[in-house]
Each structure stands twice: as C-alpha cells, then as structure tokens.
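W.,

You were right to be curious about this one. When I first looked at the sequence I had no strong expectations either way, so I just let the prediction run and decided to look at it fresh. Below is the sequence, 300 residues in total, followed by the output.
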Amino acid sequence: MSDALPADQLKIDKQRMRRSFERAAATYDHVAVLQRTVAERMAERLQFVKFTPSLILDAGCGTGYARKLLRDRYEHVPLVELDIALGMLQVARGVHPWWRKLLRGGSAGVDYVCGDLDALPLQSGCADMVWSNLALQWCNDLDVTFAGVRRVLAPNGLFMFSTFGPDTLRELRQAFGAVDDYTHVSRFQDMHDIGDALARAGFAEPVMDMEHFTLTYDDVAGLMRDLKALGAHNATQGRRHGLAGKTTWRRMESAYEQLRREGKLPATYEVVYGHAWAPANLPDGRHVVQMPLPYKRRGG
C-alpha cells in the first residue's frame, strides 16, 4: 500500500468510532494497560508544572481512569469529564459516582458531558486546564481541535495531552499493506506536526516529547481481540466496507508472522506527550474572558 493515501480515505468516521467505543465500554478497562500507563506518565509530568487550576476538563476521559490521578494532585478542584461515547461516561459514573466523592468529604464533584473533542460543547474560558489522554488521534483536523481547546481554556490555562505518533501499529499496517490497498490503521500525526498545529492555534511555550512501547502477542488474533475490546476499530473512510475473506486474513497473518521475534509478535505504539499554555489573548488579538460553565453543578 502506498504511504501517500488520499486524505479522504484517512478521515475518521465519527459515527463508527462512537459506536465502537459504546460497544467497548464494558470491556475497555480489562485491556487498557497501555492507556493507564500513559495516563500515569502524564501525571508524573504534572510534578514539574507549578500550576493549580480551578476547573479541569478531561477531554476524551473514557471510563474515567485519570480522575484519581488528577484528584491526587488537585484534590479540591472540580472536574468535567467529556467523552464522545455515552457508554464510556456511564461506566465512569457507575464506577466513580460523583456523590461518593462528596460524601467522603472535601473532594470536589465531577460533571459528565457527552461531546466531541472537535466541537467542545463548553463556554469560552471555562477551564483552567484541559487534560487529554490518547484521544487526539480520533480527531480529523488538529487545527479545528486545538482551536476549540484554546477557546475553552481560561487565560494562562494549561493544555496537557498525549496521543499516538506515526510508528503506532506499524507492524499491523505493514502486514495489511502486503495484501490489499484499503486503510486498516488510522493516520497518526508526527510530533513536529502537532507542535506546528499548537502554534497555529495560538498556544505558547509548547513542550513535546515521545517514547515507544512494544506490546507482545502470541498471535495476531490476540492483538485484534485487544483492539476490539478497547473500541479501537478501524474507523477510517478508506476501510473495507464488509468482512475480509479468509484468504485475506491468512495472507495478513502470514505477513505479520515474518515479524515474530523471540517467539512473540510485536505491536509498537509511539506515544507523543505535550503541554502548552493559553496566553491571555487569542491569535487575532481578542482578549479571553473567563465564563461560567453552561450548566449547574450537581450537589453545588
């Protein structure tokens, strides 16, 4: 398969993506080892940021794993958890109900919003910190996404995120590339392109770094089961519309087998970390005025 695929083939079908995560809500936590690890690495980076927000938006919160990590550092700070999949929010609320936090005394409440990172349903300047762990790869246009994040951040607010880089699932992409010309793996943005998009959105002092993780499997079926349980289905517009035949799967598995090392099949993930600040003025010179949230806090 050519690396220079048309942009429309690589575009994410948001409806398919939402449905995939809805179906995976019940199984996600059983296999989200990498996602939890990356969230913990992000939380470690907060130790070097001298900043205390008054409200945090967890954009793409999934089942809410980051909540404890954020609470450990910002115990009394209200938190808004946002995800495109209602099922994920229902799991998050069921596992970590907001009223239990309040009844234990001292901890601020949690609000839940079902919405898309590409069209944040929040008022301008409502959050002092936007945290997003491994969600940006599901956005089609980082210029649009970052402009929205920039809009909801209060003056001098912090945007802290992680996302997948272009080496992610390179083995799976290579194996499928040996058998057909459909897209089977999402497009992942290069760290430098992400930094450029931050600058275009008007963010200041961006800091970027990356690392690689390699998960190993006994067979390709194990990898595909994990991806399904995570809800990380192929949602690109250029995907095969319909099931692949047995011959295609056998050829793909044979190609992947060529990559077996020390008895295991590798699955590489490139994780890009970044944070940047929202200066007091928008790129066009307008001043940002902090606004209240567009809903009343439960229990408040």
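Here's what jumped out at me. The CA atoms of residues 95 and 201 lie 35 Å apart. And, maybe more interesting for your project: The domain at 7-278 is CATH 3.40.50.150 (Rossmann fold).

Coffee later to discuss?

I.
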